[in-house]
Each structure stands twice: as C-alpha cells, then as structure tokens.
Design brief:
Protein name: TetR/AcrR family transcriptional regulator
Number of strands: 0
InterPro entries: Homeodomain-like_sf (IPR009057), HTH-type_TetR-like_transc_reg (IPR050109), HTH_TetR (IPR001647), Tet_transcr_reg_TetR-rel_C_sf (IPR036271), TetR_SbtR-like_C (IPR049445)
Oligomer: single chain
GO molecular function, one term: DNA-binding transcription factor activity
Keywords: DNA-binding, Transcription, Transcription regulation
Structural class: mainly alpha
CATH architecture of the largest domain: Orthogonal Bundle
Number of helices: 11
Radius of gyration: 24 Å
CATH class of the largest domain: Mainly Alpha
Organism: Streptomyces armeniacus
C-alpha cells in the first residue's frame, strides 16, 4: 500500500526545520566563541569579516545573527558583566567595607588581564543594549556605595572618586603578556601594581599592611637619551 503523502510531508518538514534551527544555533555559538577569542586578544576593533573567518561562517551569516557590532559585543560580554556585578554585590555584603573595596579592585583587574576586550566594552556606550546598560549601571551604583562606605569607615581616602577606578583600569591595561614577556609575568606585574595603588588609596597609611607581592620579572627598558642612544 502506498504511503499517505499527507502524513509524511509534515514529519519531513518538521525534521528539516529542526536541522535548520540546530545549524543556526551552532553558527551563533561559533560566532560568539570566535568573537570572544578575538576581542580578548585584540580588543573590540577586530573587523567583523575577521571574526566571520575565525568562526568559519560567511559575513552574511554573521550579520544575520548580529546585525551590528554593538549587538555582538554586548552578547559576548554579557556573562563577564554579570560576573563583575556579582563581585560588587558580594563586596557590599562584606561587613568590612575596605576589604570589600580591595576585593573589587583586585578581581576586576584580574578579569581585565584575562580578557582585554572587557574593559573597553564596560566603558563604552551602547544606547540600544538596554539589558547590558542596566547591568552596568547596577555595578556602578554598587561601587559608588562601596566607596562611600569605605570612606565613612575612615579606611579609604576622602578624595578618592569612583571614577578613579577608570584610571586604575587604564594603568592595568598597559600590562600585556607581550610587554611583560609571558602571561605569568603579566599577572605578577598586575598584582604588584594593584597592591601599590591600593596602598595609595588607604586613608591610614601608618596602619601595618601585608607585604607587596613579589616583583615581576618584566625587565627594564631605559629611554634612549638621543638619536644615537648616547
């Protein structure tokens, strides 16, 4: 007996639709993974075509999934931003506001060193990315509150401003594995830099503090004194 085509066609159509959805999801994940790797190493200015090549998809496929660079950047860094906000929330729950303040600075700088694109994404304006901006605003309000608490406790110098965290990130951003010689040396240099900065932020410098992390083996490059180096 011949099969009823009216029963076979819907099933075949459903299978094809499922395959298309699975393919689309795989392409989306490949694009996000490729963008995450590229942004971490080269920052946010990586050409979209380069990300498509790294993902093994066409540029048209990339733009179908992410019509703008903003939509791709905010999707890539959504988890990191959520982690950053969680770090601030945990610090606010710490009964010691100075310890909470130090924890935020240390952890955010570690996150920055691991992913160079995150700081640029955090400091950029994305007017169409409502959820991303809401999460960032939450983290910023939390750090503002943590700053006030540490100052009211007499532990953080009164002239520190929450915007000074940007200066910390700019300084830490100058530490790269290429300049330091290795990822391990860069991490050591970052820890020592952050420790120096946190000491300068203390309102009570006379209070005993733990020793600095060991010096980083990054070498020293003296500027040349003239065209010939003489």
């Amino acid at each position: 007996m011949a099969a009823d085509s009216s029963q076979i066609a819907p099933a075949a159509s459903a299978d094809a639709s499922d395959r298309l959805r699975a393919d689309a999801e795989r392409n989306r994940n490949r694009i996000l993974d490729a963008a995450r790797e590229a942004f971490a190493v080269r920052g946010l200015d990586v050409p979209m075509a380069a990300i498509a090549r790294r993902a093994g998809v066409g540029v048209a496929t990339l733009y179908r999934r992410f019509p703008t660079r903003e939509s791709l950047v905010t999707e890539v860094f959504a988890d990191q931003l959520a982690s950053c906000a969680a770090v601030v929330d945990e610090a606010l729950a710490d009964p010691d506001p100075w310890r909470g303040f130090c924890t935020v600075v240390e952890k955010v700088c570690r996150m920055q060193l691991a992913d160079r694109g995150f700081t640029a994404a955090f400091l950029s304006e994305f007017p169409d990315a409502v959820d991303f901006d809401r999460q960032r605003a939450h983290a910023e309000r939390g750090f503002d509150a943590l700053t006030r608490r540490a100052q009211e406790a007499g532990r953080l110098r009164a002239d520190f401003h929450p915007d000074d965290l940007t200066l910390v990130l700019m300084a830490n951003d100058g530490i790269t594995a290429e300049a330091a010689g290795s990822a391990e040396a860069a991490a050591a240099a970052s820890r020592r830099l952050v420790a120096f900065l946190l000491r300068s932020f203390r309102a009570t410098p006379s209070v005993p503090v733990p020793p600095l992390p060991p010096p980083a083996a990054v070498g020293l490059c003296w500027p040349k004194s003239g065209p010939s180096g003489a």
